[in-house]
Write a structure and sequence with these properties.
By secondary structure, the protein is of the alpha+beta class.
Length: 261
């Protein structure tokens, strides 16, 4: 086995993916080449780490949520004229006679081994059902946006209309698979400057969890708000609070919409 051939197959050897005859030939070569042996040991340690990284069973809803969100999650930032120029690789000059190209050595030594390890990681994902995301885009969705998209795309989500009254119209879209609900309200009466509308997720009459203050946009409308829904939550509602908000409702809710999870 040649040196190049050994380095090209070190990743496959670490994963026991070589035929028996090639594996025996590689082991014989690695026994005489410290660099090759160390490279294979490193690949084996990485493969073992990938195989043991999952310590608990993922929730049943995880796969459905990931598949629902993946269509809206950009994996790479958009390519701009600046980034094209920044990332364009300059043409490599041909090495002088008798000189080995460092880039070529790196490609031979690490290219194939790295591809084998990527394949091993993909296999681990398929076996365990767990995905590990590496964020390569600083502008990727924040959790609140992802949760709102999850509810919006859930075809099984349940829509609950609030009872129309003098305080306006309200609606909640509840997604059991997303563990979230999106609240909408229209035509609320304007408040004095020292007061604000505050949205809550309520647990019957025993408690309430603040979602935040409601503020109108430039057109005078209240934006939709998506909140996490937990076991025991029964309603979403609005109360009138001081301008800075309250840790718990200080007045009776003026709008209450029941939810189900």
């Amino acid at each position: 086995m040649t040196i190049d051939g050994a380095y090209l197959t070190s990743g496959a050897a670490a994963l026991h993916a070589l035929p028996a005859d090639e594996a025996a030939e590689f082991e014989a070569f690695a026994a005489q080449d410290e660099t090759c042996a160390a490279e294979m040991a490193g690949f084996r340690e990485t493969a073992a780490m990938l195989g043991s990284v999952v310590a608990e069973t993922p929730p049943a809803s995880m796969r459905a949520n990931v598949m629902r969100l993946i269509t809206n999650t950009r994996q790479l930032p958009p390519l701009t004229e600046d980034s094209r120029g920044r990332h364009a690789a300059a043409p490599e000059e041909a090495p002088a006679p008798g000189v080995t190209s460092l880039a070529a050595v790196r490609e031979r030594r690490f290219g194939v081994g790295a591809k084998w390890l990527v394949a091993a990681a993909a296999a681990a994902i398929l076996v365990t059902g767990t995905l590990f995301f590496v964020n390569r885009d600083s502008t990727s969705q924040d959790p609140a946006v992802a949760m709102a998209n999850c509810v919006a795309q859930d075809t099984a989500a349940k829509t609950v209309e609030g009872t129309p009254d003098s305080m306006g119209k309200s609606q909640v879209v509840v997604s059991a698979s997303c563990n979230a609900a999106t609240f909408s309200v229209w035509n609320l009466d304007p408040l004095q400057p020292n007061s604000s509308y505050q949205l809550w997720v309520m647990q019957g009459t025993t408690g309430a969890r603040s979602v935040g203050l409601l503020h109108t946009d430039a057109n005078g409308n209240y934006p939709q708000v998506t909140a996490e829904i937990k076991p025991g939550d029964t309603d979403m509602g609005i109360s009138v609070e001081p301008a800075a908000g309250s840790p718990a409702p200080t007045t009776a809710p003026i709008v209450v919409v029941p939810i189900s999870t």
